[in-house]
Structures are given as C-alpha cells and as structure tokens.
Amino acid sequence: MIANKELRKSFCFNRIFGPRATQGSFCTWYALHLLTLLAFTESVYLDTQPLIRSVLDGYNVCIFAYGQTGSGKTYTMSGPDNLTEETWGVNYRALHDLFKITTDRKNLFQYEIVVQFLEIYNEHLRDLLTGDSGNKKYPLKNGINVPDATMMPVNSTADVLQLMKLGQKNRSVGSTAMNERSSRSHSVLTVHVRGKDLKTGAVLHGSLHLVDLAGSERVDKSEATGERLKEAQYINKSLAALGDVIAALSVKSSHVPYRNSKLTQLLQDSLGGQAKALMFVHMSPDSESFSETLSTLKFAERVATVELGAARTNRESGEVRDLKDQVMALKEAMAKKDAEIEKL
C-alpha cells in the first residue's frame, strides 16, 4: 500500500523485496510468465534462478529492471561501482550460475555460450563492446536478433566481468536534477546458448536478455533541457511503446505493436508466446517521488495481468540436425558448381 494526504491505494504482486534484501534495492518484481517458485528467500537472485537456468534447456528468457531514474535498476542488474563477488548484480550471478551448470553437465551436454551487449540510445542501436552505433537490422538469424553486432564467446565469469566493464564504460550516462549519474539509454546484455545432447545428438538454442531500462521520469521534474530533454523524450516514448506491447498481450490482441520501438523490436522473441519473462520494478522511498511511484506501480499492475502462455523449448532432434547439415552441404556444393560454370 502507498498513501499520501490525498490518496491511499493498495497493490498486490508476486514478491516484494525491502531495502535490506541482499543484492537488491527497494524493489518489487512481477512475473509475466506464470512461475513455480521455490521457497522464499531474501536474495533477489535466488528467486530468479530457476528462470535463468531454463535457458540451458532451450528456452528464451527476458528479465527487465524498470522504474524511475535513481531507484536502483543498474544496481540490481550490475551491482555497485566498487564490485565484489558479494555485491554482484543479476547479470554476473546469472552467467556465473550458467557456467557452473555447464561444468556439472559436461558429460551429458556440450555447451557454447556467447554474449552481446547492446544499448538503445535515442532510438539508435549501439554495440557496447565496440562503441559503434548505427541502425542495426533485426533478421532473427539462427535465433539471433542482431547477428551483425559483436558476439563474444565466454567461458568464465572473469570473461563476463571484463566485457561488462567495457560495455558499461561505453554506455551513455548523464546528469539530471533527479540523478547525477542517470542512464540515458536502455542496455541489453544478451546471452546466447547452444547445447548439444551428447547421447541423442539433439541441439537446443536458448537466449537470455538481461535488460536495464533507462529511468522513467517526468521531464519537468528532471529539469532536462537540450540534449538531455531529447534523451528523456526518446526514453519515455520507448517505455510507452513497451507499455503498448504489454497492453496488447494482456488482451491477446491479434496485432502486437513490436515495431513501434527499437526496444520492443529487439526483445520480440522473448515477449511472445513461447518465452518466459520477468520484471523487477523499482520504487524510490522518497516522499517527493510519490507521483512517480504511483505511476510505476500502475504500470506494474498492467504487467501482472499479462499471460504469455506456455513457454516452448527451442530443440532440434539429432535427425533434424543431420538433415539440415545435409541441406547446407548440398547448397554449398551447388554454389560451388554454379561458380565453376560461371567461370567456364
């Protein structure tokens, strides 16, 4: 329940984490996909662990951090600036956990893990691992939305720490009246997993989007002008587009407006009916932020009504994989023959 002199309103959600929750700010999270949770724990990450681990079984998963600027989204997803293993955010803990499981399953599965780190700034997609910007395409090739962005193979948490440090350095941040170090973009760390069952030859593909959304804010309160005003307008527009997608999903509309924003376009494969998704919603306990908190909770209330349906794993049997390999080999042979004929 939240209240001030004029208004008192109650909200009900899946789980609430208070200020003392380990590696979590004052936040509440909501599942877009119905989840069966393990016993309650204070740790923010442990409650999301079953969802994250399902990536290794071939599911697409999306985890958001949403809320007003300065409420702790980046802290939850990445951790503080002076990072230690105890203060790792969800991003690092997720990869660390996935590496541990791949080691445990090494006699059953052969896994390959690669990561991409992207940012959406003023509706332009930037590759945070190179600093390059541009209008990247979304052809969804082999389960990868942005195949022309940098893809780095990772084998340990140390690899991830190094890449995340580079990505955070390249991310767009700036100062506003509400937050002296405000994220001015949406960052998306995507983990692509390919696993092969050593016994059956079946191949599975899973993707995990870890999304640190830019802070929602009222333009008048943030006192943004010039470039900061432009950034705030783009941020609010893309968050509104995310809200429109959620509204369409909640009523099972035949048309879902994914293409209205680079953010929803990028995450389409993890917001559809075959994926699992979860949202951390952050609120500031500051009394002056009451109106922003109320707006955030209303958005979260809409999110909580969404039912994505049963998630499906992306798995190919060994026979299907062999047939695809044969088709690819035939295409390459035909291309080679066509080149020889052209030469003659």
TrEMBL record:
One Pfam family it belongs to: Kinesin
Domain Kinesin motor residues, every copy: 1-306
GO MF entries: ATP binding; microtubule binding; microtubule motor activity
GO biological process: microtubule-based movement; microtubule-based process
GO cellular component, one term: microtubule
Binding positions for ATP per the UniProt entry: G67, Q68, T69, G70, S71, G72, K73, T74
Keyword field: ATP-binding, Coiled coil, Microtubule, Motor protein, Nucleotide-binding
InterPro entries linked to this entry: Kinesin-like_fam, Kinesin_motor_CS, Kinesin_motor_dom, Kinesin_motor_dom_sf, P-loop_NTPase
UniProt xrefs under SMART domains: KISc (SM00129)
First and last residue of the signal peptide: none
Stored Gene3D superfamilies: Kinesin motor domain
Source superkingdom: Eukaryota
Family: Belongs to the TRAFAC class myosin-kinesin ATPase superfamily. Kinesin family. KIN-14 subfamily.
Protein name: Kinesin-like protein
Native source species: Selaginella moellendorffii (Spikemoss)
